[in-house]
Design a protein that fits this description.
Zincin-like, 50% helix, 3 strands, 3-stranded mixed sheet, mainly alpha, 149 residues
């Protein structure tokens, strides 16, 4: 998001908040959140498309106890968990996080081999940028509401 340099910090914070709210409303409009079984199906499709079906999770599910991570994977169990905070985000962002966790079933850690796997997904950088923007917006001090609270 580009913001004119002449804006004060308070105006900038208000503008970012307004625009993020508009973006979130636009993206979640008419969107149904997939359930765990649909999430598992999507993981299977993504594995087939990008990893030749080699990443085979035993379970894929939404969780509400991940507030600092977007997703997690336990390769020994084959389990993938995605944070409920991803619900309502653009599909390409959820797909990226799923692919990231699927890649951990094939390569532990975040070394060069891991990132080469994710290079196959054309929206990796865009999705990472989106998630970084969400994190940055969450760190902004919240301006007082119009009701003076």
């Amino acid at each position: 998001m580009l913001i004119p340099a002449r804006m004060s910090e308070a105006e900038e914070q208000r503008w970012v908040t307004v625009m993020l709210d508009k973006l979130a409303a636009q993206e979640s409009k008419n969107k149904r959140v997939p359930g765990d079984s649909e999430l598992a199906e999507r993981a299977e499709q993504l594995s087939a498309q990008y990893f030749d079906g080699r990443a085979r999770p035993a379970s894929v599910r939404w969780v509400t106890n991940q507030n600092t991570r977007w997703g997690s994977c336990t390769p020994a169990e084959g389990s993938i968990r995605l944070s409920h905070r991803l619900q309502g985000m653009p599909e390409y962002v959820v797909d990226y996080v799923l692919l990231h966790e699927l890649a951990h079933l094939l390569v532990p850690g975040h070394g060069p081999r891991f990132w080469r796997l994710l290079d196959a997904y054309p929206r990796t950088e865009r999705a990472r940028g989106y998630l970084e923007g969400v994190v940055a917006a969450e760190r902004l001090p919240h301006p007082p509401s119009a009701r003076g609270e």
